[in-house]
């Protein structure tokens, strides 16, 4: 009996030690990120070890999938976060803004700022440099951001081509698109595209008649998993009929204002060049 | 006024609304550009399909509402009462949120139709004594159950999917397949209208209560079930293709009945034509308000219909 009791005590002690040594699960200096773009940025700045939890939408880099989840994108699970006792929670927004107050009252710092374009991204990089105490890495990322943007702009200037008029389809039914000032709008501009939706900001739902009237040169299809071919209403659009629909290789790289966005733009640009080179050559081949 | 003259007036109104539906829209195109390279311009084609869809949906809702109000003898009766909107909403949301939307364009309408018909059948199965009042209560219960299940789905959904569900629930005639959705709905509407015209005497008798109808040789319970099932099927088909469009099925039959009396032989076709004209005009308004965005037609029907109906209500009270 005494032996059994000793064994039980040893097991209990081992269990306690294991729990205490798992710093990620209960780390006082840990960071919870509820935005996939911010999770990517934290990892890119070399601070992945500071992350104690992520949102269900955070899936890059692959290694973050091992982390526990603490809510979905912009929707924190308060009890789980409070139990983790992190020092900081970061996100672009919260569906319920009162969640931020509840976390702050519990002594957890909360940083909520939107990230809709490259200026916002620069602000986040600077802020993360301070919050995570990695100013040099943040400085490097700011420089890389400026260099890549300048590179795309100079390529556009040298190409001297009229930009292609594009429709960004975020969702097909209702037809949700990216308007002026949105991230796809900024990304597309660097890839040599001109958004046909100029009068509306954000992500408006637009009419098919407007698309038919504007007659875009190309449709960039972000509606992952949705099919435009089975919808008869789409067949009237010339770009659809002529096969000028481009599905980005990795739409998360383009729709997330994170460090991968520049590679996403380069891929988009090269896919557009290939698509229009093919079209031109097939038109030339026709008698 | 003679029935034929009333029908002609409503027909003229519906035709005028249809012409406006083809002429006006988000894009301003001159008449000379309606035909390009020997074929209709894609914009005009789109307008024709959606105007026809608005006509069929509006007429179906008005006919369905007319039957509900007559059989239930309740001015507040509307086409979605027997669980149709809740069931269709659950079916459509299930298709969108569980990823069945990727099966193709028709998956969401088919799931919505399945949801509406299932909810409807549940109401008929769950209510033992199928009197109008008990079916109405059963409909409210099944509708509430479907709505709460819909909320559960929405709670676990992605925000982008949720936009699809919300838009669908607001109602729209933008994305309707002419062959696979519009044609069957039009055939059903014609068949239902013909049947109702044939049995309009029974409908008239039922408006005085089942006992009165029974005393005049109508199998009141069977007729009540048949009429409510037919009206719900009309609503289920429209809801599966255009989402939940409120107000049209509630107010249009009311207005027509106030203007032309209670004989269903006289008011059935005018109600259908008025419903068609009303929804076509609401759709035009939703299209022209902004050149880029589009207002959901269900929102327009309520926003425009409410003040018009209140005006008519006060006008007829003052007259009487």
Give the gist of this structure:
Chain A is an alpha/beta fold and 287 residues long.
Which properties best describe this structure?
heterodimer, A: 287 residues, alpha/beta, Rossmann fold, five-stranded mixed sheet, four-stranded parallel sheet, 11 helices, B: 320 residues, mainly alpha, ABC transporter involved in vitamin B12 uptake, BtuC, two-stranded antiparallel ribbon, 13 helices, 2 strands, 1% strand, globular
How does this structure look, described?
Chain A has eleven helices and eleven strands. Chain A is of the alpha/beta class and 287 residues long. Chain A has two domains: 114 residues, Rossmann fold (3-Layer(aba) Sandwich), CATH 3.40.50; 124 residues, Nitrogenase molybdenum iron protein domain (Rossmann fold), CATH 3.40.50. In chain A, strands 7, 8, 9, 10 and 11 form a five-stranded mixed beta sheet that branches. In chain A, strand 10, helix 9 and strand 11 form a beta-alpha-beta unit. In chain A, helix 5 packs antiparallel against helix 6. The longest helix of chain A is centred in the middle third of the chain and has 25 residues. Chain A starts with a helix and ends with a helix. In chain A, 38% of the residues are buried. With 320 residues, chain B is an all-alpha fold. Chain B has a single domain, classed as ABC transporter involved in vitamin B12 uptake, BtuC. Chain B has 13 helices and two strands; from the N terminus they run αββαααααααααααα. In chain B, strands 1-2 form a two-stranded antiparallel sheet. In chain B, helix 1 packs parallel to helix 12 and helix 7 runs antiparallel to helix 10. The two termini of chain B are 19 Å apart. The mean pLDDT of chain B is 88. Chains A and B meet through helix 8 of A and helix 2 and helix 6 of B.
């Amino acid at each position: 009996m005494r032996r059994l009791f000793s064994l039980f005590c040893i097991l209990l002690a081992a269990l306690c030690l294991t729990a205490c040594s798992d710093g990620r699960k209960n780390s006082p200096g840990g960071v919870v990120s509820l935005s996939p773009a911010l999770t990517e940025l934290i990892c890119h700045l070399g601070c992945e070890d500071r992350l104690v939890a992520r949102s269900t939408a955070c899936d890059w880099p692959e290694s973050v999938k091992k982390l526990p989840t603490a809510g979905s994108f912009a929707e924190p699970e308060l009890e789980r976060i409070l139990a983790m006792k992190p020092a900081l929670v970061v996100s672009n927004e919260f569906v319920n803004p009162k969640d931020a107050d509840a976390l702050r009252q519990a002594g957890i710092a909360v940083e909520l700022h939107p990230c809709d374009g490259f200026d916002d991204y620069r602000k986040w990089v600077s802020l993360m440099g301070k919050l995570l105490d990695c100013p040099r890495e943040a400085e490097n990322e700011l420089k890389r951001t400026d260099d890549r943007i300048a590179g795309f702009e100079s390529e556009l200037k040298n190409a001297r081509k009229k930009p292609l008029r594009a429709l960004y389809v975020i969702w097909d039914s209702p037809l949700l698109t990216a308007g002026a000032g949105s991230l796809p709008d900024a990304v597309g501009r660097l890839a040599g595209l001109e958004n046909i939706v100029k009068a509306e900001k954000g992500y408006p739902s637009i009419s098919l008649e407007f698309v038919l009237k504007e007659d875009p040169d190309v449709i960039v299809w972000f509606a992952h998993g949705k099919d435009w071919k089975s919808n008869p209403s789409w067949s009237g659009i010339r770009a659809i009929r002529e096969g000028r629909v481009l599905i980005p290789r990795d739409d998360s790289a383009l729709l997330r204002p994170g460090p991968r966005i520049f590679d996403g733009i380069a891929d988009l640009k090269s896919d557009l060049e290939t698509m229009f080179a093919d079209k031109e050559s097939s038109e030339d081949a026709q008698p | 006024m003679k029935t034929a003259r009333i029908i002609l007036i409503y027909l003229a109104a519906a035709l005028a609304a249809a012409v406006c539906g083809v002429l006006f829209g988000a894009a301003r195109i001159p008449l000379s550009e309606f035909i390009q390279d020997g074929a209709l311009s894609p914009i005009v084609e789109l307008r024709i399909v959606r105007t026809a869809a608005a006509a069929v949906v509006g007429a179906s809702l008005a006919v369905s509402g007319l039957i509900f109000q007559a059989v239930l003898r309740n001015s507040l009766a509307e086409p979605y009462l027997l669980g149709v909107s809740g069931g269709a909403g659950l079916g459509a949301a299930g298709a969108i949120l569980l990823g069945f939307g990727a099966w193709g364009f028709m998956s969401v309408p088919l799931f919505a139709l399945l949801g509406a018909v299932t909810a409807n059948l549940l109401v008929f199965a769950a209510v033992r004594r199928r009197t109008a009042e008990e079916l109405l209560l059963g409909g409210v219960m099944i509708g509430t159950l479907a709505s709460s299940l819909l909320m559960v789905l929405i709670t676990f959904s992605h925000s982008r999917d949720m936009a699809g569900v919300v838009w669908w629930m607001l109602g729209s005639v933008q994305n309707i397949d002419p062959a696979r959705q519009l044609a069957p709905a039009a055939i059903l509407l014609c068949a239902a209208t013909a049947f109702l015209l044939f049995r309009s005497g029974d409908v008239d008798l039922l408006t005085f209560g089942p006992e009165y109808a029974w005393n005049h040789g109508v199998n009141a319970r069977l007729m009540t079930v048949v009429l409510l099932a037919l009206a719900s099927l009309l609503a289920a088909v429209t809801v599966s293709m255009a989402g939940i469009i409120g107000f049209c099925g509630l107010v249009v039959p009311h207005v027509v009945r106030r203007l032309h009396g209670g004989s269903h032989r006289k008011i059935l076709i005018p109600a259908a034509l008025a419903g068609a004209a009303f929804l076509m005009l609401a759709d035009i308004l939703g299209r022209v308000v902004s050149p880029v965005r589009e207002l959901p037609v269900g929102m327009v029907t309520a926003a425009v219909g409410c003040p018009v109906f209140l005006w008519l209500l006060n006008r007829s009270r003052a007259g009487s």
